[in-house]
Design brief:
Number of helices: 5
Oligomer: single chain
Shape: globular
Largest sheet: 3 strands, antiparallel
Number of domains: 2
């Protein structure tokens, strides 16, 4: 199981469009509570340019994950099965923190899933736990009230700064016992205790997805 987003280029493109939106807000004399609330109007050239770049970066992220997984698969085949090709029982490549144009309740709308993945009846998804917890492969139930979505992970109980102040290196070592991973001061903000209990999260979204497989990590590589 691996994760990669748009590797920085998405952020750079987003910053360009945010600057454009702010300038448009100034030109229109829109009095916004915060400059970061600047927006594009659907159908305008600026909106179309933003949507085009957004879809490009999402596609880039998906292909990036496919390439990473393909390379990892070849390494596994080389060292574990003598170089013989293997066929996975199931391959899942899903977005999170993204936007799509979809039809819900008979209307075409833009859906932004932040910390969420799509969970239609035909969708498989990945719900990762923390460094020391379980992760899940799931199949969507197509819950219309959730706009066919489910949570992407456990979610944080506390901010990164609070985790760094509250936990120690000894806590990190104890909470990641049995997992081969980095155990140093620089990743205390990723300590399992900073996240919600993944089993409770899964229980709370039983009406959104069914669990297909439960994964217990033995190696966790951050970077």
């Amino acid at each position: 199981m691996l994760h990669s987003g748009s590797r920085g280029i998405g952020n750079q493109l987003a910053q360009c469009h945010i600057c454009t939106a702010r300038e448009l807000a100034k030109m229109a004399a829109n009095k916004l509570p915060d400059p970061d609330l600047a927006y594009f109007v659907s159908g305008t050239p600026e909106f179309q340019a933003y949507w085009r770049d957004l879809q490009w970066t999402q596609d880039y992220a998906r292909v990036n994950r496919d390439i990473m997984m393909s390379r990892f698969k070849r390494i596994i085949e080389k060292h574990l099965v003598g170089g013989k090709p293997t066929k996975p029982l199931l391959s899942v490549n899903c977005h999170h923190n993204y936007a799509e144009k979809e039809v819900h309740f008979g209307e075409e709308v833009y859906v932004t899933r932040k910390g969420a993945v799509r969970a239609r009846e035909e969708d498989y998804g990945i719900i990762p736990g923390s460094m020391g917890a379980k992760s899940f492969i799931v199949k969507g139930k197509g819950n219309l009230e959730s706009f066919c979505s489910c949570a992407h992970g456990a979610g944080r109980l506390m901010s990164r700064n609070k985790a760094k102040n509250q936990f120690t290196l000894d806590d990190l070592i104890e909470q990641t016992k049995g997992v081969e991973c980095r155990k140093d001061d620089r990743i205390i903000d990723e300590i399992p205790g900073a996240y919600k209990p993944i089993d409770k999260v899964m229980e709370n979204q039983a009406d959104l997805v069914e669990i297909v497989a439960t994964l217990k990590q033995v190696v966790c590589v951050k970077g």
